[in-house]
Amino acid sequence: xxxxxxxxxxxxxxxxxxxxxxxxxxxxxxxxxxxxxxxxxxxxxxxxxxx
Length: 51
Hints:
- By secondary structure, the chain is of the alpha+beta class.
- It is 24% helix and 18% strand.
- It has a two-stranded antiparallel ribbon with strand order 1-2.
- The N and C termini lie far apart (43 Å).
């Protein structure tokens, strides 16, 4: 599926990652090349907000 024009907030690749809150809201978006280790701090801040 191709479409034009591409916009900055379009999903560019099917391996992009999204961090979703417990309430189902998107919190952050990561490039397809991001590793879980790159997202660790963001994930932990959602799991343990008071730490």
